[in-house]
Design brief:
InterPro entries: Methyltransf_12, SAM-dependent_MTases_sf. One of its GO terms (molecular function) is methyltransferase activity. It is a single chain. The protein is an alpha/beta fold and 197 residues long. Helix content is 36%, strand content 18%. The protein has a 7-stranded mixed sheet with strand order 3-2-1-4-5-7-6, sandwiched between helices. The radius of gyration is 16 Å and the shape is globular. The mean pLDDT is 90.
């Protein structure tokens, strides 16, 4: 079983030999996700839910783009919550907890980056139900498949095809709008045929 402790985050997020994403790449992903969400909402985002947030790496680039938007991160790492919870508004919860967990509001942008390809199918499906139920605008769901060239943490990686993810996301009520962006039932009626991925 993987332990998401300080050593894990030091290796995959800070060590130049192993780090899989730079701050510049993360800033561009944040700009993409915010831009897509605001396009489909027709207004600036007001709140963000980051599922599987780890240490809350998305917190700073999102705050730089939209300082007025509230941010809530959820993660199963006790270390990350103890270390960064108060400063970055992180709470302890697993992806599967979203199946039952309701946070009292819908979110303009829900991020789940580099998480779902480590989850077993039942937990993934449970969590997706919660994401769809609490989604107001866009879900940025960064997932890697058997069709991708992969580098980084392969321990526990679930080897699934793009087709498998598309089917599971569609069954949950999500519609692709490209570039890892998905809308739920509240936005889907307004998506044109060529926008859908």
């Amino acid at each position: 079983m993987k332990i998401y402790d300080k050593a894990y985050f030091d290796k995959w997020y800070r060590d130049g030999r192993h780090r899989v994403i730079s701050s510049g790449v993360l800033a561009r992903k944040a700009a993409l996700a915010v831009g897509l969400a605001e396009y489909y909402l027709g207004r600036p985002i007001r709140n963000v839910l980051d599922v599987g947030c780890g240490e809350g790496a998305w917190y700073k680039p999102l705050r730089a783009l939209r300082p007025q938007a509230s941010y809530l991160g959820l993660d199963s790492s006790e270390y990350a919550i103890a270390r960064w919870g108060r400063q970055r508004n992180l709470r302890l919860a697993s992806f599967g907890d979203l199946g039952q967990l309701r946070l009292g509001e819908r979110y303009d942008l829900i991020i789940c980056a580099d998480v779902m390809h480590y989850l077993r199918a039942p937990e993934l499906r449970r969590g997706l139900d919660g994401i769809v139920d609490q989604l107001e605008g866009l879900a940025y769901l960064e997932v890697y498949t058997t069709a991708d060239r992969l580098d980084g943490d392969m321990v526990g990686f679930q080897r699934r095809t793009p087709r498998w993810y598309r089917q599971v996301f569609a069954e949950a009520g999500l519609l692709s709008v490209g570039s890892q962006g998905w809308v739920g039932p509240r936005q889907a009626p307004w998506i044109t045929a060529m926008e859908a991925g």
